[in-house]
């Protein structure tokens, strides 16, 4: 929650005219450089990328334009170089391995992983759909589809699914990256526009952040879904293209005729590309938080497992089994808790909302004393800390809180809370032996919170076989192939201006 | 054999025999259903309204199953729930050995642990010694099944099955072929803090559907019994409670007049307390009161509302409230532990806690609806979820939240809000997303429930 | 007292006026008054989507007046910087048209197939009455179609025999005292004595899930509108309204391509919502009576005027009527949202940042004041509850971000 902090931001940004940072550190890994991908779909066609731009950010992009993306042959011919390059980069990133110790185990995980950045979350979903499509292509009249397409589909699908994981950095939607690190005057709904976000952070001299983002919104075309005027132009160019090729699906012919469409999409991608590069460069300048490495290591591990699986010819289910969904849910919840805790513990700016909500306290240590307590039958050494907080505190007795410095260790338990001056005086007891590392010094300014970064207890995997309760009485029918509609002739585009009620087709 | 409540001959006139008999019939039918199918991969489901005596039924049933020589695992989602189940099982079956398998640091309270026959073995020991009745949280049972092979039970009994999610149920389900699931359909649904908790919604694999939901989805012929009784709520509270159980008829076990809250010192204390005192009088007489402050834009943790609630509690005790009911021989003083304040947000809770502690009312419980689920009090003050809100949204419209707040009390419930709250429901509900294969719509269902409640509270409104 | 509060109260039509009972005869005086309100502003007839958009903004007096006056908010500000993009890609539209055409080809072969598979009743020989062909695409045509629909529904519903499908059934509703026509994609009759409303959408359902759950919700809301109106139509004809099933049908493509698949979903809750929505639409005559004479959209829509003047006119009109700005609702439903947002920003209204922020600021007049309170400025009694956490937030933030000083043009 902590709407008070959001309100504060709104007030200050309104007054100063430019955005404010929410964090002192960067909490997401950023490769140098990451692979950028920007796509433009054909209106209403969730599986058809009319244009895919990709390349290491900061450099020029390559562009795959099919001309007529609703024609399977032309589409796949155009996607082939993208797919091949993606597969190459993925495999190359997974090649060199390092050893990683965890307790008694040592695993080999990739030294790096291919990081992909995209302009917004909608692109993540679009790539996921594209992956769903490509990874499950079926033969067409005995002709097997290009294996690179299928492999690229598996990679895209993996990336889009992995993107659900809180704190992950494999597939990074930049609108989320920016919104997490910057406060702007934009409402959450408006924050999905990367150009508007960017404009509020560095408005031109003399321009208020609000006006800058209004201007950016008016100009920005980011995709993947095209606006009406973009596709009016596409419509005209595509009509010419289709007329000129007269039914030919020869890639060489298409290549020759697709120049105008390529230029059209190049002009659309160019500003998005620059915007993405600008955003990433700005965030790279901020130092990374310590746990960024740990989280990216988790990403690398998942990446390595995926690459090995695909290399061994592994396939993925189209939907989760109950078991997979249950495991996924817990993993996501654990990752979210860990990510929130790590951010707040490592970056005081991120702890502010918890201080405001009463889930954390900050104050000056009055005293730290050793204290013996009886646990079962023995007397064991513990420590008692007295803390004077800046603000009044409501903490129930026995609540466990962690000192940010020892957030991965044992908690302190609240013994007593009394009013004291403007704030409260709290007495806490350490729940472990008082080694020097665990004790703050008198006079120190410390923060304790309900957040901790201890690794979660290892969860055992649920049984492979679902119990009878989770198995349907009649097994479900197997799904139809995803690409069964590929052979259909494309629908003729219709301009909304010619219709009395174009909205009915929304 | 006891059924859904202990009735002594002398107090028979305090209970509505028809309602009790109907409920007993359902309970018997459930048990019969269960016993005839033990050994098969089959479940029996009991849907109960708030205060139906589920835990009593479950505890009694467990005793019955044990009497048949069956090995039983009894689980519930939270630690508090299973700890109180141990106490309840022992209360109804004093001679029954109970093995409580728990996570590290989650031992039973000393009093319960000291009961004869109660042990707290490790999961491995419980399996090795073949403990015939094991009580644990669903998570712990699942962990014990995987790690220590704790399993091979004849029956798995799940209390609060509408609060348990399908993910939890997945592993726990493997410990026994036959299941009994009992729960309250009106209270809060399973919840996850992740952003995209609705990712799987509507699909068979959804880990956040309720345990009963996944069971019925895969086995639609499963018998669902509706338990038609509430022991906690008295007849004055039933109409409002019914707003949360649209498909479910039930009656109060207790006759009108048995529950009595008397405010023995007269009011008003002063002009400024006139509305507070009138509210208490209304609540004592009718079991409900709805005190409304004038509408104004306010924070969710509004200090004026919190002060009003503190004043209500303070006056309740200052005016020597006394309660009488079927469990007492005579009216006794209301104690702080008998009273709770239900809120929707932690900052409301923190504010109230500070105010109450300052006023010396540390014994009064304040908590969010999430944490009050399943608990019982004599008097409850409910900070209305929509109080002072300029708009409605899914969180505040959630019928489960309002249900919990308005069904905890045995004597009286005082609702606190603003006089503009009801008008929010004259507007149009917000647009909601759709999920194929999933019909419920918490916003729309909640809208209806909230409207129904406001309507029924109308005669009890007092303007502050 | 902040400008935002004043603008919401001054000149706002009395709530009673907006919510009174419906009249039976349209009031000619109202018609004239609304013509004045419209001026040269482009108009749009209410349809199921306009109704849905209205639902999102129905608490805004300007939106209410615009809706009652049939003003097309998308086009009023055409040619200005505040014009919001609103059209759809020709490919998306073409796909929609092609999907409909696919369902109807070869004697509605695909529609029959999908209804048979999905409803478990054989529609292969069902009579399909095409209520689109042969009627003029104007008000007269719609009125006729509505009449035919009502008759056919009543006839068939009272004596259900074999399955029948009405393609292009038109249902009439009263929107604020004026008739409006709603076209249901299909209406399947004779399914176990029930009438089932169907809606076609050309976005795909993949692995049992739509690609957009908001779009699914909107589609189900549309179906619910037809269920409600269908029930009223039956009721007027003396037939049990319950014959229209609360389980509506949605026909969408599956996976790639346009091969249709049928989904059934219960929409009873949504039907109740639409009922409330229709009740929330104010009577046109009441609106007309309550609008001050100075209010008109004419100048705002005048493309010959400079942008400044048009925006000034907009600000004046909305100041008089009142604005209720909520970013998520307004930006997705109302063509005035950008212009409104500009007014809201100009007033320093916290609504600019969205509902939750505004909720945290009761009694605080403007964002400028928030900044002051965030520096610990003394608060008035009205501001005090909100000011305490904001001052604290400011203090905590400044402690951890010493580089930021309010008033700096560039932070961090």
Describe the structure.
The complex is a heterotrimer of chains A (506), B (464) and C (412). Chain A has 506 residues and is an alpha+beta fold. Chain A folds into two domains: 3-316, no CATH class; 346-457, Elongation Factor Tu (Ef-tu), domain 3. Helices cover 40% and strands 19% of the residues of chain A. Chain A contains 13 helices and 15 strands. In chain A, strand 2 (35-41) and strand 3 form a beta hairpin. In chain A, helix 2 (72-95) crosses helix 4 (147-162), helix 4 (147-162) runs antiparallel to helix 11 (291-311) and helix 6 (194-201) packs antiparallel against helix 7 (209-219). The longest helix of chain A has 26 residues, at 259-284. In chain A, 48% of the residues are buried. In chain B, the strands form four sheets. An eight-stranded parallel β-sheet of chain B has the order 4-3-5-2-6-7-1-8, sandwiched between helices. The longest helix of chain B is centred in the N-terminal third of the chain and has 21 residues, at 17-37. In chain B, helix 2 crosses helix 3, helix 7 crosses helix 8 and helix 10 (274-286) crosses helix 11 (303-318). Chain B is α/β, with parallel strands linked by helices. The termini of chain B are far apart. In chain B, helix 12 links the parallel strand 15 and strand 16. With 412 residues, chain C is an alpha/beta fold. Chain C has helices at 3-9, 15-18, 28-38, 48-57, 61-68, 73-76, 90-119, 139-158, 213-236, 268-280, 284-290, 307-321, 327-333, 337-346, 355-359, 367-374, 384-400, and strands spanning 127-130, 164-175, 178-191, 194-200, 205-206, 209-210, 247-253, 260-266. Chain C has a six-stranded mixed β-sheet with strand order 1-2-3-4-7-8, with helices on both faces. In chain C, strand 5 (205-206) and strand 6 form a beta hairpin. In chain C, helix 9 (213-236) packs across helix 10 (268-280). Mean pLDDT of chain C is 87; it is low at 1-25 and 405-412. The interface between A and C is large, with 85 and 79 residues.
Keywords:
heterotrimer, B: 464 residues, alpha/beta, eight-stranded parallel beta sheet, six-stranded parallel beta sheet, 16 helices, C: alpha/beta, six-stranded mixed beta sheet, disordered C terminus
